[in-house]
Write a structure and sequence with these properties.
With 253 residues, the chain is of the alpha+beta class. Helix content is 32%, strand content 33%.
């Protein structure tokens, strides 16, 4: 048999001969003669299905359907959902005996896992910042700073007074923070060596030196914190930076 002139000559203006479909990007679509990927995409869109794999015979008949699903789902109900979806969307009737279900342990989004890890680590820190209050002092040109920290379920506060100058307020905040830490540590002690504001990398930081005393051990602990909200608050965080790891090693079991 011979074809029509239009079929023999594509340039004659008649219909073009049939050929493989092309996508909008100009690249040939990868072959999927039995619609396997379409079926797998449909199944992974079902609630609770994490992944799906459809196996076909050389004639295109479905021989196996493998599903990985979240835990807590009823396998029988999930199988019925799969049968219904394939029949309704693709007109494909699959025997339920060809569908196998595997379920995983609880799967949480990576963001939730990261938040849980951060929270767990924060709860294990030696001391946690609770509050810092700055109020006028008992005399003119003086301020009173009250620092509150918590450690192992126990909360303590300490108050220090200083002159109403940046340097004096930073030192007073650091002294108050160290005093609180000294209260919270049962068998060890800390003492402030000094606190000052420094410039580095086009930013301002508070740096503190704290003497840690534990048994016969005496060690100088250094801590820093960038000044963001206030220099006094940074002084408290610098004390925590200096002492937390040292104090964590001495936390009672």
């Amino acid at each position: 048999m011979t074809g029509s002139p239009s079929a023999r000559n594509p340039d004659s203006g008649g219909p073009r001969p049939a050929g493989p479909p092309r996508n909008s990007g100009g690249l040939d679509t990868a072959p999927d003669p039995w619609g396997v990927r379409r079926a797998e995409n449909l199944l992974t869109s079902l609630e609770g299905v994490l992944s799906a794999r459809v196996v076909t015979t050389p004639l295109g008949e479905v021989s196996e359907v493998h599903i990985l699903a979240q835990s807590g789902l009823q396998p029988k109900q999930l199988v019925r959902n799969i049968e219904s979806a394939l029949l309704a969307q693709l007109g494909l009737k699959v025997d339920h005996r060809k569908i196998s279900i595997a379920q995983t342990a609880e799967v949480r989004p990576i963001e939730a896992v990261e938040r849980a890890v951060v929270r767990e680590r924060s709860l294990r820190r030696a001391a946690l910042f609770e509050s810092l209050q700055v109020a006028p002092g008992r005399r003119p040109h003086r301020v009173t700073l009250t620092v509150t920290l918590s450690f192992g379920g126990k909360t303590e506060s300490a108050e220090e007074e200083g002159s109403d100058t940046p340097r004096s307020k930073v030192e007073a905040a650091a002294r108050a923070a160290v005093t609180v830490m000294d209260k919270l540590l049962a068998d060890d002690s800390v003492a402030l060596e000094g606190a000052k504001i420094i410039d580095a990398f086009d930013r301002e930081f508070v740096i503190v030196g704290v003497q840690g005393l534990g048994g016969r051990e005496s060690v100088l602990l250094m801590g820093t914190a960038e000044i963001k909200e206030s220099a006094e608050r940074a002084a408290v965080f610098a004390v925590l930076d200096a002492t937390n790891r040292w104090a964590e090693a001495r936390r009672p079991e």
